[in-house]
């Protein structure tokens, strides 16, 4: 028969509630008692029953992650890292895709929220009032979406973009294009950061878009980039950058001899493309750990000291950037 928590309590000479606290919230029990309980549990081979604990505490021991596009190669490493982080803390992670549509996001939240203790919403399309209302009903962490009073993990591209602008400036680039893949998302911080960084380095920046952040967007944008006679292009993400590279090759433009290309995210695509893609790296493990830890803290009634947790970025120079060709109009 399975060893019960009562047997552990008897062996350790403490109450059942003390055993529960020692194993589940050890900070609430003094060190000597905790060690005695743990030793008794190990000696008897006691294993907590997660299902019983969930029923007792009214929890599902599951967390939800809602992402905008599961086909984007940026997200699988995020999901895997979050899953591992959650698992280490006794939680299962459920993932769903909103397909970048507000209606789908609402429908998915309605279905998933009944099955999880808290939600991580990545680049949510919902209005601020909806998100604030949801956060009042259950623990919610936003990623790359700022709503007053709602906990957020903010992926700051400031350093990475500044490094990209500095990198292009050093190579002699002056006329650049940004392919905006923000679609109709409420958060416009990416394009604002890019404009500010390129202005600060004295680089001319032409923006095209906004489009959806997909491979096809890069294919569509490539001839527009050439039409503007730019010597460098910064794409919204690696997926868009891969579309740009594909179509530039089809149009006979050499990278980086004729034009330099920079992506954002540092997905697997960036390192295996030919030439390998210069990109701005976002660390999936750091984003995952921050988001999961923040959400589990909220689930257990531990609000963060600061409402916004920031994760940085950095440039990874590779083979798609090089010296600018001479502007033919000069």
From TrEMBL:
SMART domains: HTH_LACI. Residues 3-57 form the HTH lacI-type domain. Pfam families: LacI, Peripla_BP_3. It comes from the Bacteria. One of its GO terms (molecular function) is DNA-binding transcription factor activity. InterPro entries: HTH_LacI (IPR000843), LacI/GalR-like_sensor (IPR046335), Lambda_DNA-bd_dom_sf (IPR010982), Peripla_BP_I (IPR028082). Keywords: DNA-binding, Transcription, Transcription regulation. This is LacI family transcriptional regulator. It comes from Jiangella aurantiaca.
């Amino acid at each position: 028969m399975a060893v019960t928590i009562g047997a552990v309590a008897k062996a350790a000479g403490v109450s059942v509630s003390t055993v529960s606290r020692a194993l589940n919230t050890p900070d609430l029990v003094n060190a000597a008692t905790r060690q005695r309980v743990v030793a008794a549990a190990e000696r008897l081979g006691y294993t907590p029953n997660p299902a019983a604990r969930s029923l007792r505490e009214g929890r599902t021991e599951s967390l939800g992650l809602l992402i905008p596009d599961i086909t984007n190669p940026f997200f699988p490493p995020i999901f895997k890292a979050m899953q591992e982080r959650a698992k280490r803390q006794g939680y299962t992670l459920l993932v769903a895709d909103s397909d970048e549509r507000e209606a789908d996001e609402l429908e998915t939240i309605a279905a998933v929220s009944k099955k999880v203790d808290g939600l991580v919403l990545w680049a949510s399309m919902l209005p601020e009032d909806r998100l604030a209302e949801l956060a009042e009903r259950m623990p919610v962490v936003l990623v790359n979406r700022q709503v007053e009073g709602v906990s957020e993990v903010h992926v700051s591209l400031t350093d990475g973009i500044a490094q990209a602008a500095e990198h292009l400036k050093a190579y002699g680039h002056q006329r650049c294009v940004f392919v905006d893949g923000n679609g109709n998302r409420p958060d416009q911080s990416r394009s604002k950061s890019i404009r500010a960084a390129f202005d600060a380095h004295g680089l001319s920046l032409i923006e095209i878009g906004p489009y959806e952040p997909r491979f096809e967007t890069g294919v569509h944008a490539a001839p527009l980039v050439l039409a503007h006679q730019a010597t460098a292009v910064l794409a919204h993400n690696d997926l868009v950058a891969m579309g740009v590279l594909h179509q530039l090759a089809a149009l006979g433009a050499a990278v980086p001899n004729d034009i330099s290309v920079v992506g954002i995210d540092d997905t697997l695509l960036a390192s295996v493309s030919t030439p390998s893609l210069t990109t701005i790296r976002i660390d999936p493990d750091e984003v995952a750990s921050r988001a999961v830890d923040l959400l589990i803290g909220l689930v257990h009634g531990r609000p963060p000291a600061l409402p916004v947790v920031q994760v940085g970025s950095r440039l990874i120079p590779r083979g798609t950037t090089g010296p600018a060709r001479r502007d033919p109009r000069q």
